[in-house]
Amino acid sequence: MSEKRKYRQFTVEQKTEVVLAGLRGDRSVRDVCREYEISETLYYSWRDKLLEGGKVALANPQTRTPEHAEIAELKKKVASLERSLGRKTYELDVAGELSRDWT
Fold first, then answer.
1. How many CA atoms lie within 13 A of 55 on its CB side?
2. What is the DSSP annotation of 44-101?
3. HSE (CB half, 13 Å, CA atoms) of 83?
4. Residue 38: which residues within 8 A CB-CB, separation 6 or more?
5. d(C-alpha 82, C-alpha 23), whole Å
6. How far, in Å, CA of 94 to CA of 34, rounded?
7. Is 17 helix (H, G, I), strand (E, B) or coil?
8. What's the pLDDT tens digit per position in 11-51?
9. For residues 79 and 96, what is the distance between their CA atoms, to the nearest angstrom?
10. Which SUPFAM superfamilies has this protein been placed in (predicted)?
11. Which of the residue ranges 5-19, 31-45, 46-60, 61-75 would you say has the lowest mean pLDDT?
12. Rounded CA Rg of the chain
């Protein structure tokens, strides 16, 4: 019978603390990993994710990701369609008033 292995769960705050401890430079990454009982591979994975997240957070809002560009384009389309709908609604109101005047 095999037992299911239990993995420790780290919170975001714990992961950040570990990565920052390694980035401070007052001790080696190996020592930090030993203290927190994690592998160096896991440490570097967390570090890369933290740094990548920081890049996204600091990026210019206009150039963050392709998704942001797509959202901006869709917002422009919605605004254009709303303006067109407004014009057509106005035209129908005017046409209705004119047709009432003919009778």
1. 8
2. HHHHHHHHHHHHHHHS-GGGS-HHHHHHHHHHHHHHHHHHHHHHHHHHHHHHHHHHHH
3. 6
4. 18
5. 51
6. 78
7. helix
8. 999 999 999 999 998 999 999 999 999 999 999 999 999 99
9. 26
10. TrpR-like
11. 61-75
12. 29
Name the amino acid, one letter, at 96.
G
Both tokens assigned to 68: 């942001």
Residue 36 makes CB contacts below 8 A (sequence gap 6+) with 18, 21
- From the list 31, 27, 35, 4, the residue with the least C-alpha distance to 14 is 35
Token representation of residue 87: 């014009």
Length of the chain: 103
Residue 2 is classified by DSSP as -
Token pair in block for residue 75: 């917002």
Tokens of 64: 């963050």
Give 27-49 as a 3 state SS string: CCHHHHHHHHCCCHHHHHHHHHH
